[in-house]
Write a structure and sequence with these properties.
The chain has 308 residues and is an alpha/beta fold. Helices cover 39% and strands 19% of the residues. The chain has one domain: Rossmann fold. Strand 3, helix 3 and strand 4 form a beta-alpha-beta unit. The longest helix has 18 residues.
């Protein structure tokens, strides 16, 4: 393992300094772009279509990047919603992971949704719902089987993917997505604000900054616990498709996955939770660690079982 990778792992494994000054969303965006550029090195050489227009909203284009698998379709499809604390990331920051999934036979549609703080909630979520509707309607023309769709998101993207399911089910009572893959996501904002000060990577004090960037200053309790922000509290949980959750034992977001898994099971949803020993946040993008391969194989096995 090279020194840069080791430092990335240490960043996710160590508590933030107690005197860390306020980090803005734009600063996080710049830092994550540099980190992701390094982590994306060595990905499989595959065809990618960048910037396919989905819709025009707020006077700007909403676009997706398309990662087709090999061979003739129709293929199972994945709507991929990247992480980045709601303020950072893009299809490019998660490029290698999308390529890995395409390599395994899935047609990946990666959403370039609007980011905070310029675009606060619910604008990013609105974009994800737009992309979900577009994929459901255009799947066949993309060589994707509309009956074999999954939604996937990591970290903040896991939050947005679960919130997208809530929105679709609240609106329509059903969804085209037959499974959901949600690595190390956030599903309960009030619980995140209670993280202890010595939590690695993020704690309650630092999460306040992310809340301010995403929701605005001092959001009220009803907004924090609303299902579009904290999907664990969705009244539509019983209608969720089968869900795969994973997180590492060195990730303070592990409890988010465990608790969301309990809520889903209590609602009668088929739920699989993979806990990866000694893994930090974002481990799926750090291929030098054993958990990355373990997580990818478990996700693919889940998708094969739920999508056919």
């Amino acid at each position: 393992m090279d020194d840069i990778t080791a430092r990335i792992i240490e960043f996710y494994a160590a508590p933030p300094p107690a005197d860390l000054p306020r980090v803005t969303g734009l600063e996080i965006r710049e830092r994550w772009a540099v980190t992701a550029n390094f982590l994306n090195q060595g990905g499989p050489d595959r065809t990618v279509e960048r910037g396919r227009t989905v819709a025009t909203r707020r006077g700007e284009r909403l676009t997706v990047d398309l990662y087709p698998p090999d061979g003739d379709g129709p293929h199972p499809g994945i709507l991929f919603i990247h992480g980045g604390s709601w303020v950072a990331g893009s299809p490019l920051t998660h490029d290698k992971l999308a390529r890995r999934l395409a390599e395994r036979g899935y047609s990946v549609v990666s959403v370039d949704y609007s980011l905070a703080p310029e675009h606060k909630h619910p604008e990013g979520l609105d974009d994800c719902v737009l992309a979900a509707d577009w994929l459901a309607g255009e799947a066949a023309s993309l060589g994707i089987d509309p009956g074999r769709l999954a939604i996937m998101g990591d970290s903040a993207g896991g939050n947005l993917a679960a919130a997208t399911l809530h929105r679709l089910l609240e609106r329509d009572g059903s969804t085209a997505f037959r499974s959901a893959v949600l690595p190390y996501g956030v599903y309960d904002f009030p619980a995140m604000l209670e993280l202890p000060e010595d939590s690695p990577f993020v704690n309650g004090r630092i999460f306040v900054w992310q809340v301010e960037d995403y929701l605005g200053t001092a959001p009220d309790d009803p907004l924090l616990a609303s299902p579009a922000v904290s999907p664990r509290f969705s009244p539509c949980l019983a209608k969720f498709p089968p869900v795969f959750l994973t997180a590492g034992t060195r990730d303070p977001l592990l409890q988010q996955s465990l608790d969301f898994g309990e809520s889903l099971r209590a609602a009668g949803v088929e739920t699989e939770v993979l806990v990866c020993e000694d893994a930090t946040h974002a481990f799926l993008q750090i291929e030098e660690v054993e958990a990355a391969g373990e997580g990818l194989e478990a996700m693919v096995a889940f998708l094969e079982r739920t999508l056919g």
